[in-house]
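Journal club prep — side note

Before the paper discussion, L.F. wants everyone to see what a predicted structure for a comparable chain looks like in token form. Sequence:
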Amino acid sequence: MGVVFTLVLWFICVLIGGLGLTLSYARPMPPAPPPEPFVAERLQVELAEEPQPLPDTVQPLSTDEMTPPEPVAVAQPNAAIPFALPVEGQPMRIVEAHQANHASSPATNTTAVAAPRAQTLIYGQDEGKRPAPLYPPVARLQRQEGTVVVRFTVSENGRVVAAQALSPSRWPLLNEAALRVVRERWRFPSGPPRLYDVAMCFNLTK
């Protein structure tokens, strides 16, 4: 029995040694060498007391560049020129009117055309030309009531060209109905452009 045990033990050792040779494993790497120490050097800088010469690329100014600009010829106010035009940023010299370089330009009419003032229109007059708005069915079912103040512009041919709810009600359906009838169905006599304000009341019969 001792011989068999010894042979088994040797066989196990040989097997472990063979596995150790065939299997791969991480081998420790040698440590990296330490970096070389940094050696600082001291430099001595001396400031030059004498001024350095200018580079050769700098060129002196030419005679034309040093010459001031020629003065602008300006005429004094007279019967032909009611006032002299100011010349800013340039030298000027006083000459006769026919020798002046600049002539006065006619004044431009900048008067703005005043916008027409809004007129209050009483709703219900001339029913044939200004029909009443249609009461929206949904607004009737929901018992919506209110007043809408519409401001609109009438062109020269008597048609409404623009309309807006100047003071709308809290119900969008009523506002849309008032604007729609003014834009699409209201007509006026021909004349100058006009601006109107009209109040439309939507009331349900009790």
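L.F.'s comment for the group: Residues 3 and 53 are 105 Å apart (CA to CA). Keep this in mind when we get to the figures.
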